[in-house]
Design brief:
- The chain is mostly helical and about 230 residues long.
- About 70% of the residues lie in helices and about 5% in strands.
- It contains 8 helices and 2 strands, in the order ααααβααβαα.
- It has a two-stranded antiparallel sheet.
- The relative contact order is 0.11.
């Protein structure tokens, strides 16, 4: 029983490897689905560890290693594929390598998370699955929606997300202690806006909500401070 969560974590890693393979093959929508599957496995391994009381030091480290690949490296390859597909619009083609700053920031964030005791109920900095979700949504559209976006803007997005991953901005998690409106009104509001964004803009609406996630978090914790 104690090996079940670790097996699920390895499936997360396997899905991340498949996502990278699909990027190499030019199948960005398939890469997006693989990242989404990896995120599901990432949720399941923690849930099963709690249900089975199968916590282990190796499980914690293994989870971070899997997340680096699935939610750090795979999104970086998606961004790299999008930039390198438009070489005629790059004055310096080598600038495409800047996308891997997200992989570096993800590794640093996950290492920091493993030793940080302040991130038990909320996050400090954006969690790596949120970063991966943004790029998976873009990849699911095949990047077609961003064909008019200059590659340097893609590079700028990568730098922004790398900063968000390692910054000290406090961001709310979706771990509910209670389900009351008073305790979770910002989370419920965020979910409602996300649903509307999905209805009106489809998958790209979810990508937009990832960008707004830090904004909602900042407002949420400032309101909490004023209330106290």
């Amino acid at each position: 029983m104690k090996h079940i969560p670790n097996t699920i974590t390895l499936l997360n890693l396997f899905s991340g490897c498949l996502a990278i393979l699909f990027v190499f093959q030019g199948a960005l929508p398939a890469a997006a689905i693989a990242i989404a599957v990896a995120a599901i496995f990432d949720l399941l391994d923690g849930l099963l560890a709690r249900l089975l009381h199968a916590y282990s030091a190796i499980g914690k480290e293994l989870d971070s290693l899997a997340d680096v690949v699935s939610f750090g490296l795979a999104p970086s390859f998606i961004a790299f594929s999008m930039m390198s597909s438009m070489p005629e619009r790059l004055f310096f083609p080598q600038i495409a390598y800047i996308v891997f700053v997200m992989a570096l920031a993800s590794a640093y964030r996950l290492a920091k998370f493993n030793i940080d005791t302040e991130q038990t109920s909320n996050f400090i900095g954006m969690p790596t699955p949120a970063n991966a979700l943004f790029w998976a949504c873009i990849a699911y559209t095949g990047g077609h929606k961003l064909e008019t976006l200059h590659p340097y803007y893609i590079a700028l997005l990568c730098i922004i997300f790398a900063y968000l991953l390692v910054c000290n901005i406090k961001m709310f998690s979706f771990k509910f202690k209670t389900f009351t409106w008073a305790d979770n009104k910002m989370i419920y509001l965020f979910c409602a806006v996300a649903l509307l964004a999905f209805i009106f803009f489809g998958v790209l609406g979810i990508a937009l909500m990832v960008l707004l996630y830090p904004v909602f978090s900042i407002i949420h914790f400032r309101l909490q401070t004023k209330t106290k």
